[in-house]
Amino acid sequence: MLRQAGVATRAQLAREGVPEAFVRSRLRSGEWEPVGRRVVRIAASAAGPEQQLWVAYLWAGRDAVVSHASAAWLWSLGPPPTRPSLTVRRGSCKSVPGALVHRLRMPVERSAFWKGMNCTDPLRTLVDLAAELPPAELDELLDRLIARRLASVAALQAEVQRSEGTGRAGPAALGRALRRRSFLGAPAPSVLESRLARLFAEAGVRPLAVEQRAGPGGCYRLDYVIGPKVAVEVDGYAYHWSPDQKSSDERRRNVLRLDGWTVLVYSWDDVEHSGGRIIDEVTRSMERPAG
């Protein structure tokens, strides 16, 4: 019971050799408390989120899978939810008091045994939550999952492509999040820079230099210099997706900013869909007085 936050089913206790008479005596004395018909808890144990999840998981039975916000919590991707979330096969249980229960015709495809419970794996957890979360929260969850290497970008891409045309809300929302992060549809950096160059040409923006060296000893390369100490950089998927690379990019840009540079950074999604905003920001930066 201690491994399960102070709760257990009577069947579990019986398998461990605990006599039913011993269980009844503990219940009569108040040392243990019944939680429904099948589950008992140690009365002195902490009734926190972990115990609530264990009670719901055990109540739901052997087909239950911890999912959605509860699975995200188990994978250290989010805070403990106010109510446990489970996924079960239709018809396997009628209800679980205090829990959010999602019902599927088929068993969950992607699950893992984690922290003593069967739960959706990180990729399936992200897909499930993508159908429910607003874009800003989904983007944060995606960033945490990639930063902790719980799923690769290739696996995320494959999941979206595998689910295309199914009408499921989760994969479609995940696809939009990946495109916002330039993880889907992004070309090689040279293609991305070429598209930005065409955008500049169409708007009459003439960069002062391309691929100029800057920073201490000229150790950093800038994609475009559009004014005195004003640079534009584009981050494509191929070289800028990983957490390590993103950290390196930010360190480099901090050095440039401390050296007096204004650095405007745009993604593939920006170049593809927000050209007007880019030109407006670039033009305003060019109009600022130097120094």
- Summed up, the domain count is 3
How does the helix and strand content classify structurally? alpha+beta
Strand elements, count: 12
User: Count of helical segments?
Assistant: 13
Major beta sheet summary: 4 strands, mixed
- Return the average pLDDT rounded to an integer: 84
Distance between the termini: 67 Å
Bin the helical content: 40-55%
Strand content: 15-25%
What Rg is obtained from the alpha carbons, in whole angstroms? Answer: 26 Å
Order of helices and strands: EHHEEHEHEEEEHHHHHEEEHHEHH
Strand order of the largest sheet: 9-10-11-12
Shape descriptor reads: elongated
Which ranges are low-confidence, i.e. pLDDT below 50, for 5 or more consecutive residues?
none
Description of the molecule:
The structure is a single chain. The chain is of the alpha+beta class and 291 residues long. It has 3 domains: 44 residues, no CATH class; 136 residues, no CATH class; 99 residues, Endonuclease, Chain A, CATH 3.40.960. It contains 13 helices and 12 strands. A 4-stranded mixed β-sheet has the order 9-10-11-12, with helices on both faces. Strands 1-3-2 form a 3-stranded antiparallel β-sheet. A hairpin with a 3-residue loop joins strand 2 and strand 3. Helix 5 crosses helix 8. The chain is elongated and about 85 Å long. The model has no long low-confidence stretch (mean pLDDT 84).
